C-alpha cells in the first residue's frame, strides 16, 4: 500500500473509531463546526534562547499531525494597548475540520511525544478552544 493511501486509510479508520465511541456521533452538527485550538506557552525561563529554540523545534514537529488543517506559531507582537496580553513565550494555534479531528490530534503519537519531550520547558500553558461555522457571511 502506498504511504499516502496507507496514511489516509489510518486517518479514516481513526475517524470512524472515534465517531463510533464519541458522544459527538449523536450530534452530527458538531462534526460540521470548524474547531480552533489555541495554546499559549509560558516557558520556565522565558529569557533562555536555547529553551525558546527547543520549544520552537517541538512545535514544528507537532505541526506534522495529519488532522491539522492550518498551524500558526507566534510570539507576542510589539503592540501596546491595555487589552493586549503579551506575557507568554509562544502561541500555538491550529485549525481542524471538526472536533473529532481535534480529538484524534489529542491522542496522536506526535502530540503525545511532544508533551513527553518538551513539557519540562514550560511552567504553564493556557488553552482556548473554539468552534464555529466553517464559513462566515
Query: What is the CA-based Rg, rounded?
Result: 17 Å
* CATH architecture verdict: 2-Layer Sandwich
Classify the secondary structure makeup into a structural class: alpha+beta
Shape: globular
Strand order of the largest sheet: 2-3-1-4
CATH topology: Alpha-Beta Plaits
Fraction of residues in helix: 40-55%
As a percent range, the share of strand residues is: 15-25%
Instruction: Give the total of domains.
Output: 1
Q: Summarize model confidence as the mean pLDDT.
A: 86
Highest-level CATH class: Alpha Beta
What is the β-strand count? 4
Helix and strand element order: HHEHEEHHE
**Amino- and carboxy-terminal Cα gap:** 42 Å
Low-confidence stretches: none
Instruction: Tell me about the largest β-sheet.
Output: 4 strands, antiparallel
Helical segment count: 5
Amino acid at each position: 500500500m502506498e504511504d499516502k493511501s496507507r496514511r489516509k486509510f489510518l486517518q479514516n479508520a481513526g475517524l470512524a473509531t472515534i465517531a463510533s465511541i464519541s458522544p459527538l456521533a449523536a450530534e452530527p452538527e458538531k462534526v460540521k463546526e470548524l474547531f480552533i485550538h489555541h495554546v499559549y506557552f509560558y516557558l520556565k525561563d522565558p529569557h533562555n534562547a536555547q529553551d525558546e529554540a527547543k520549544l520552537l523545534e517541538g512545535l514544528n514537529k507537532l505541526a506534522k499531525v495529519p488532522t491539522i488543517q492550518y498551524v500558526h506559531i507566534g510570539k507576542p507582537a510589539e503592540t501596546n494597548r491595555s487589552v493586549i496580553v503579551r506575557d507568554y513565550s509562544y502561541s500555538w494555534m491550529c485549525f481542524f475540520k471538526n472536533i473529532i479531528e481535534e480529538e484524534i490530534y489529542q491522542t496522536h503519537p506526535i502530540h503525545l511525544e511532544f508533551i513527553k519531550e518538551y513539557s519540562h520547558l514550560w511552567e504553564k500553558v493556557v488553552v482556548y478552544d473554539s468552534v464555529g461555522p466553517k464559513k462566515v457571511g
